[in-house]
From TrEMBL:
Protein name: Ribosome biogenesis protein tsr1
InterPro entries: AARP2CN (IPR012948), Bms1/Tsr1 (IPR039761), G_Bms1/Tsr1_dom (IPR030387)
UniProt record, GO biological process: endonucleolytic cleavage of tricistronic rRNA transcript (SSU-rRNA, 5.8S rRNA, LSU-rRNA); maturation of SSU-rRNA from tricistronic rRNA transcript (SSU-rRNA, 5.8S rRNA, LSU-rRNA)
One cellular component term from this protein's GO annotations in UniProt: nucleus
Composition-biased stretches (Basic and acidic residues): 375-385
Domain Bms1-type G as annotated: residue spans: 84-244
Region (Disordered): 318-480
Record's compositionally biased regions (Acidic residues): 406-441
Transmembrane segments: none
One term of GO molecular function: GTPase activity
Compositionally biased spans, kind Polar residues: 344-353
Length: 480
C-alpha cells in the first residue's frame, strides 16, 4: 500500500511584492522626463512664520523710507546751494503764438525782469526765490529739428496754443514727432483768451484740452499766463513736481550748455579747443568716451573739471565765489575711444570693401547680359521644330503645328511610325537625297506661329509670298 499524498491548504491571503522600478529613476531619464521644468524650492523658516504686528509695522516703515530716499535722490539736483535749474522748453504750435510772450508773463508774475539783452534761441534763467528753485526757459521758433533737440534735454515742455487759430499741419507734425521721440511732462498754455467772448471761454478750453489729451493723455488741463495768479500757479507746479524722466535719456549723460567758448590753435584757426559749461545730468560721464554735439559730430574729451559758480550767500544779498576749479576726470590714452569710425581697408589682406564705380558699372553690364541670356533661353525653350512636306507655306505649316500640338504622345508615336513606313517605301523607289528633298523643318514659336524654316532664304521668300488663302493644290496636299 503506497504512501498517502500530502494535502496542502491554499493560503487565504496572497502576498504581492511591488516590482523594482529604479531603472526609470536614473538621472538622465528624470532629466528627459522633466523637459526643462524646475521645481520651486519649498519655503521654510521665517517666510512661513506668521508676522506679528510689530513686524508688519517695521516692513511698512522700511518701504516708506525707501520711497522717501528715492524722492530725495531724484530732487537733490534741483535743491541746495548749487542746485541745477529745471529746463523748460517753450514750443509755439500755432502761427500767432510767441514763446517770448509766455516767458515774459512767467517772469512778471514773480516780479523778475525779463533779460532783453539775450537774442533768440537762448536760455533765460529765472530764479524763483519763493520756491527756492531755478528754472531755465528755452524759447524756440517753429523749427522741427530745434524743437526735437530741445525736448531731448528738457524736464518740462510748454505747448503754446492759440484761442483763435487752430493748430496747423506743422504743429501736428511736431506733436507726432515728440510722441515718437519721447517727451517729459507737458503743460498746455493758451494765449488770446481775452479776445474770446466770456460765454465761450469754457468751451474753447474744453476743445483745446480734448485736442491735447489726444496726443498727451497726462495733460488733463489747459493753463493760461494772462493773469499773474494763473502764471504763478504754473511756476508752482513746475517747481513742486518731480520731472518725469525719459528712459533712453537717463541711461546716457547729457548736458544743455550754458556757455560755449572756442579757443583756436596757433597753427590753424579752424582747429582748437571748445569749452562747454553746463550741468551734467543722466549717467556718469567718462573722459575716455566720445561726446556728440548736434549738427557738428563726435569729439574727444580733453578733461572734465568742476567750475566755480557765483552763488548767493546764506545771509544777505552779497555774491560769493565758489571754490577753485578742480579736475574731475582725464582721459587715459590706452582706453580712450578713437575718432576713427571705420577700419581702413588693406588690399593685401583681400578685405571686402565698398565696390567702386568701375566695379558697379561692370556688374550692371553683367546683369544685363545675364537677363538677355535668360530671355533667349526662355524663348528657345518655348520653340519647337516640325517636319512638313517641302513647298508647304507658312499658313499650312501653322495648321500642321496646331494639329500636332493637340495630339498626345501615342498619336505622335503612330505618326512617326507612319512616316517611317512612307520613308521606307520612298527609299525603295529612290535614293536618300530624294527623301530629304521631299521634307523640310520649320520652327514654331510659343504662340503657334512659324518663326523660321531650315531651307534657303529663296525658298523662305517663296513660302512667304504664298501666304494667304490656300490654293486647291495646297488643300489637296494638306488632306493627303
Amino acid at each position: 500500500m503506497g504512501a498517502e499524498p500530502k494535502f496542502h491548504h491554499r493560503a487565504s491571503l496572497k502576498q504581492t511584492n511591488k516590482p523594482f522600478k529604479r531603472r526609470f529613476a536614473t538621472k538622465n531619464s528624470m532629466r528627459d522626463k522633466a523637459k526643462g521644468r524646475t521645481q520651486r524650492v519649498s519655503l521654510k523658516g521665517k517666510v512661513l512664520r506668521k508676522h506679528s504686528r510689530a513686524d508688519r509695522r517695521n516692513a511698512v516703515r522700511t518701504e516708506q523710507r525707501k520711497k522717501r530716499d528715492h524722492i530725495v535722490m531724484s530732487t537733490r539736483i534741483f535743491s541746495g546751494r548749487h542746485r541745477a535749474p529745471k529746463i523748460v522748453a517753450v514750443i509755439p504750435l500755432c502761427a500767432d503764438i510767441s514763446a517770448s510772450d509766455i516767458v515774459r508773463n512767467l517772469f512778471a508774475c514773480v516780479d523778475e525782469p525779463y533779460p532783453e539783452e539775450k537774442g533768440p534761441k537762448t536760455a533765460r534763467i529765472l530764479n524763483v526765490s519763493r520756491f527756492k528753485q531755478t528754472i531755465q526757459f528755452v524759447e524756440l521758433e517753429r523749427n522741427v529739428l530745434d524743437i526735437l533737440d530741445a525736448a531731448k534735454v528738457a524736464d518740462y515742455v510748454i505747448m503754446g496754443i492759440s484761442a483763435e487759430v487752430e493748430v496747423d499741419a506743422f504743429g501736428e507734425h511736431c506733436l507726432s514727432a515728440l510722441q515718437n521721440q519721447g517727451h517729459p511732462g507737458v503743460f498746455p498754455i493758451v494765449q488770446g483768451m481775452e479776445t474770446v467772448v466770456p460765454k465761450r471761454q469754457n468751451d474753447v478750453k474744453k476743445s483745446l484740452q480734448s485736442f491735447m489729451s489726444h496726443f498727451f493723455p497726462e495733460a488733463d488741463k489747459v493753463y493760461s499766463t494772462e493773469t499773474p495768479t494763473e502764471a504763478l500757479a504754473i511756476l508752482r507746479m513746475i517747481t513742486a513736481q518731480v520731472p518725469k524722466g525719459v528712459k533712453w535719456r537717463e541711461i546716457r549723460p547729457y548736458m544743455l550748455a550754458d556757455s560755449v567758448e572756442f579757443e583756436p590753435s596757433a597753427e590753424d584757426s579752424q582747429v582748437g579747443r571748445l569749452a562747454l559749461t553746463g550741468y551734467l545730468r543722466g549717467a556718469n560721464l567718462s573722459a575716455n568716451r566720445l561726446i556728440h554735439i548736434p549738427n557738428f559730430g563726435d569729439y574727444q574729451i580733453e578733461q572734465i573739471y568742476h567750475v566755480s559758480v557765483a552763488v548767493e550767500a546764506a545771509k544777505g544779498d552779497s555774491i560769493e565765489e565758489d571754490d577753485e576749479p578742480a579736475v574731475l576726470d582725464q582721459p587715459d590714452p590706452e582706453h580712450q575711444d578713437s575718432l576713427v569710425e571705420a577700419n581702413e581697408p588693406n588690399t593685401l589682406t583681400n578685405e571686402q570693401t565698398w565696390p567702386e564705380d568701375e566695379e558697379m558699372n561692370g556688374w550692371n553690364e553683367r546683369m544685363q547680359e545675364m537677363e538677355e541670356e535668360e530671355s533667349r533661353m526662355a524663348a528657345a525653350k518655348d520653340k519647337r521644330t516640325i517636319t512638313v512636306p517641302k513647298g508647304t507655306s507658312t499658313y499650312q505649316a501653322s495648321w500642321i503645328a496646331a494639329t500636332q500640338g493637340d495630339d498626345n504622345e501615342s498619336d505622335n508615336s503612330d505618326a512617326s511610325s507612319d512616316e517611317d513606313d512612307d520613308m521606307d517605301s520612298g527609299s525603295d523607289d529612290g535614293s536618300e537625297e530624294e527623301d530629304e528633298e521631299e521634307y523640310e523643318e520649320m520652327v514654331v514659336g510659343a504662340d503657334g506661329k512659324i518663326v523660321s524654316a531650315s531651307d534657303d532664304e529663296n525658298d523662305g521668300e517663296a513660302s512667304d509670298k504664298d501666304d494667304g488663302l490656300p490654293t486647291a493644290e495646297e488643300e489637296a496636299l494638306q488632306l493627303k
